[in-house]
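Request from the bench team (R.T.):
"We need a structural guess for the complex before ordering more magnesium ion. Sequence and SMILES attached. Just send the tokens back."

Command: build protein-magnesium ion structure.
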Amino acid sequence: MTDAADLLRVDVALSGPAVETERLSMHYQVGPETVRALDGIDLAIPRGQFLLVRGRSGSGKTTLLHLLAGLQKPTSGVVRVGGQPLHAMPRRATDLFRRRNVGLIFQFFNLIPSLTVEMNVALPLLLDGKKLPTLRGRIGELLDTLGMSHRRGHSPHQLSGGEMQRVAIARAMIVEPTLVLADEPTGNLDSRNAHEVFGLLREQAIARKVTTIVLTHDPDASGYADRVIEMHDGRIVKDTCGGSARAGVRDAD
Ligand SMILES: Nc1ncnc2c1ncn2[C@@H]1O[C@H](COP(=O)(O)OP(=O)(O)OP(=O)(O)O)[C@@H](O)[C@H]1O
Ligand SMILES: [Mg+2]
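Reply to R.T.: structure attached below.
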């Protein structure tokens, strides 16, 4: 199984588009009603693209992200990540694939309260059998890039919201992901910290050529994106260039 996961990593690095969906649907049966959370999504995301997904509450954004991460199986349709049909893999391979290739970032940070910043960042690799002393250099570099090295020994409850999200970004990046998926990463931050987090995600995406998909309600975010899609009732209703692609600048306002 480990060999299979290693092969996956090689395939992911070589082929493109980075992420592709075909007629992707997720329907729930709630009593007599069928909820079409996702309804036939066709999407191709080139490697390194910074994509924003917008849409009002209930439009299907989180459902899409869960399917792209392999956290849920679709009712029908296909997700290919780096050419690999994600949901055709055995469960354990999907879990390994996610741990080694995907950085996940959430609105409520999801840091482990009992662990220091350093341990939180190291966690995905510790779970993969790596030892902390061998990771310290890499953690230090990442925390430096994110302006957090002075908080290395702190606990999450000793950090501000913006700082917690920067730690969560470091934790996502430590695995050197090919794909970063963020669900409302600035939903809990003030606008200054929100801009900082979008800027950091954008910088990381460019520096490491990481395909980045961010779900957001933030109207200021499109200046950071190459592309913006809008969802409504489980479908993509708009697909446009973001501010970075149009103007070549980060912040259009
Ligand atoms: N387990 C479930 N069972 C039934 N319906 C569900 C389930 N999970 C989600 N839904 C429905 O699917 C639709 C899409 O939900 P989703 O969480 O993807 O929306 P969202 O765009 O992320 O919304 P928000 O902006 O509020 O986070 C909603 O109508 C929701 O009620
Ligand atoms: Mg959501």
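Two things stood out. The pocket of adenosine-5'-triphosphate (ligand 1) is lined by residues 28, 30, 35, 37, 55, 57-63 (CB under 6 Å). The first helix runs from residue 2 to 14.
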